[in-house]
Write a structure and sequence with these properties.
The chain is an alpha/beta fold. The protein has a single domain, classed as Rossmann fold (3-Layer(aba) Sandwich). It has eight helices and eight strands. It binds S-adenosylmethionine. S-adenosylmethionine binds next to loops.
Length: 215
């Protein structure tokens, strides 16, 4: 089995209620194509690049159910921590990573925590990866600052999130924003600027990908 480390107790988080449905949607090729003009394979490939970027400790931030990363966690040898605010999402991540073994690999641990109050000493990770998450935060700068603070010298932060690059995508993001689910929609150009114009930045449909170097 597995243990989720937490200083939060079972406080509950918005994604607790929708862990199962989210996990199904995010893996769906049809949903990704129709809603966001992108494909699960795109961000699986981006995640794969992050895992291949080194051999040292790796932090997956806002890991959710690890829909795009469960297999990578299973095959990687990197000491790895998955962090999410939602215990239910981390439980699904654990199930996906453990698979038929019903055990997490020894190099993988799960921590329920807020990205803005991470319970780790700074500079402990060579790679930090956060998928499908930049669009969630009103104060993106604060979250990015918190994640950059986790990087060891020479490390890299790999981030992905939704941007308003199609009419349909913008409409969905605006609806989600009005419902309080996501921050105000940004275009890819706006996100590029908000992230300090990283040299490695691209968007496929409504999914943007950025790699930031440790400062
Ligand atoms: C859209 S899901 C993305 C999950 C996963 N990275 C993926 O790509 O499938 C966003 C995740 O961010 C988590 N989250 C939101 N705010 C957070 C915060 N302040 N600290 C940690 N996790 C947070 C949610 O619980 C949810 O699991």
């Amino acid at each position: 089995m597995w243990r989720i480390e937490s200083e939060l107790g079972d406080v509950g988080a918005p994604y607790d209620r929708r862990a199962a449905i989210y996990d199904r949607l995010v893996r769906s090729r049809a949903y990704n194509r129709i809603a966001w003009s992108c494909a699960p394979e795109d961000y699986a490939a981006f995640a794969s690049e992050a895992f291949a970027a080194g051999a040292g400790p790796l932090l997956e931030a806002a890991a959710g159910s690890a829909a795009a990363t469960a297999q990578l966690h299973g095959s990687s040898q990197r000491p790895t921590v998955l962090v999410d605010l939602s215990r239910r999402m981390l439980e699904r991540a654990a199930q996906s990573i453990a698979g038929d073994e019903h055990e997490l690999p020894v190099h993988v641990s799960l921590v329920q925590a807020d990205l803005l109050a991470l319970p780790f000493p700074p500079h402990g990770f060579q790679t930090v990866v956060g998928l499908g998450m930049t669009h969630l935060f009103d104060d993106l700068q604060a979250v990015v600052g918190s994640l950059l603070a986790q990087l060891a010298p020479g490390g890299q932060l790999h981030l992905a999130g939704l941007v308003a690059e199609t009419r349909r995508g913008r409409r969905y993001l605006e609806i989600l924003h009005r419902a309080g689910e996501v921050a105000a929609p940004m275009t890819a150009d706006e996100l590029h600027v908000a992230l300090g114009r990283p040299t490695r930045f691209r968007a496929t449909g409504c999914m943007a990908y950025a790699v930031l170097d440790a400062s």
